[in-house]
Amino acid sequence: MALLLLLTGCGEPGTSAATGPAPVADPQAEVALLAVVEGQVSVRDAQGAVTPGRPELPLRRGDTVITTPGSLAVVVLANGYVIKLEEDQSTPVRALAHLDDPPPAESVAELFEKALGAEAFARVGGADRLERIAGWNARRASGRPRPRSPRWRPRRPR
């Protein structure tokens, strides 16, 4: 009898008797938004293409945010966490703390101001920036596609 119970608790790898198959993250899903860019920031996608960083650039798990000396970026995760990326680093989106956590108790506004500080928060557009982030999050949560604005690609010389 004990052996039977043990076997019913086992299953395919990545499954649990209580929950079934483990969810697989969609690598193309937007999981974050580049909310603030100061200085030279770029984003390298999973295929290696590099795009200049700009506010409101959606980020996917396979992307990497690259900041140069003297620059910074603020990323807002889909769950509401706000993460400040300091200068001169290369940060894979999939490695960001809190990426798969449940939403925080604090509001995005509180976390945003905490990440930047009051002065920098005002400098980057504070409330207006938060309104745009809220729009992105609502659109993403509703499943509506975002307006077409393909990632910028450098033109090839002729």
Plain-language structure description:
The protein is an alpha+beta fold and 158 residues long. It has one domain (30-142). It has 4 helices and 10 strands, in the order αββββββββββααα. The chain has helices spanning 2-9, 108-116, 118-123, 126-142; strands spanning 15-16, 20-21, 30-38, 41-44, 50-52, 57-60, 64-67, 72-77, 82-85, 89-92. The strands form 3 sheets. A 4-stranded antiparallel sheet has the order 6-3-8-9, covered by helices on one side. The chain has a 4-stranded antiparallel sheet with strand order 5-4-7-10, with no helix packed on it. The chain has a two-stranded antiparallel ribbon with strand order 1-2. Strand 4 (41-44) and strand 5 (50-52) form a beta hairpin. The longest helix is centred in the last third of the chain and has 17 residues, at 126-142. Residues 137-158 are annotated as: Disordered. This is FecR protein domain-containing protein. Residues 141-158 have a biased composition (Basic residues).
Give a concise summary:
The chain has helices spanning 2-9, 108-116, 118-123, 126-142; strands at residues 15-16, 20-21, 30-38, 41-44, 50-52, 57-60, 64-67, 72-77, 82-85, 89-92.
Identify the notable features of this structure and list them briefly.
158 residues; 10 strands; alpha+beta; FecR protein domain-containing protein; four-stranded antiparallel β-sheet; 4 helices
From N to C, what is the helix and strand string?
A: HEEEEEEEEEEHHH
Spatial shape: globular
Radius of gyration: 19 Å
Largest sheet: 4 strands, antiparallel
